[in-house]
Amino acid sequence: MIVKHFNIFNQPIFITPKTEGIKYAGSKLKILPHIDYLNNLKGYDGWYTKHYGAEITGTKQPFQAKNTRKLDAMRDEIEKLNLEWEDKCVILTSLIYALDSVDSTLGHYVSYLSKWSPRSYNDIFLKLPNRFPHYGGHKIVRGDIFKTIAKDKFDFVYFDPPYGSNNVKMPPSRVRYASYYHIWTTIIKHDKPKVFGKVNRREDSRDLSSASVFEEFRKNKSGEFIAMKALRKLIQQTNAHYILLSYSSGGRATKQELSDIVNKSGKLLKIIEIDYKKNVMSNMRWTNDWANSNEKNIEYLFLMEK
Fold first, then answer.
1. DSSP per residue over 211-269, as a string?
2. Which candidate, 198, 203, 174, 173, places its Cα nearest to that of 186?
3. What distance, in Å, lies between the first and last C-alpha atoms of the chain?
4. Are strands 240-248 and 154-159 parallel, antiparallel or unpaired?
5. DSSP secondary structure, 161-191, as one string
6. What is the pTM of this model?
7. Which H or E run includes 301?
8. Which among 70, 76, 89, 156 is most buried, taking Cβ atoms within 10 Å?
9. pLDDT tens, 246-268?
10. CA 22 – CA 138 distance, rounded (Å)
11. CA pair distance 245, 161, nearest whole angstrom
């Protein structure tokens, strides 16, 4: 099956720039020389090393300093190469993949491992990522999801909203979803922003500025959870033939509540339950007081027809 039209909705994280109508995701012959050039750059102490790098015997950081020095050199140089937009996107993708392969984290960037991970000792190395031809007409959107769904109708929509926590001991406002990958945002923008906190998060990733209504843990004046109301509104207002909703058992809404929401807006065709390991947040020191290591983490997939 060839997908000729798709949309990515309401991505709260600035990882890839908005692109439309690119025939091919970069030319291999054009990009490989740039990747080879960047791999051979000599690293130096710059902004990224100052905020996210550490020596082997140093403090907890997501990367060893030898790799952030290369990052400093590579990222500064990318801005000087006068690349075409799609080629720059491919090279930045390569850089993110390379950094992800040498990090020392739990898979996000709001808490770092107390000891260096084995892979953090490896040297960062850019590789040409897989690229796929497409046929135009696609759209990538960063914005309010309710405004986005009001603009079009769709054959099939997949929703994977952030879900916060249903545990009353968990401080839901501590870290918002958009904050978990703040480093990728900075690397793409390369704006070297003002940072705060122990993990040097971007100033614009503070909880009050990056909150999602789907993570809201409070109730409204009528006693309804705000997150539940948002989910109901999302399903009801989406003009689509089929909707697939992904949600976690650790979220504010229960399986039964989600089933009720779906059934009131259309026909529930199937529910799939995927038993995942406990969310990585259970390994964070500040969640030890509430996390139940024996509790399963179920990912629900609700398929409905409207």
1. --GGG--SB-TTS-BHHHHHHHHHHHH--EEEEEEEEETTSSS-HHHHHHHHHHHSEEE
2. 203
3. 23
4. parallel
5. -------TTS-TTSS-GGGTTHHHHHHHH--
6. 0.74
7. strand 297-305
8. 70
9. 998 877 788 999 999 999 999 99
10. 9
11. 8
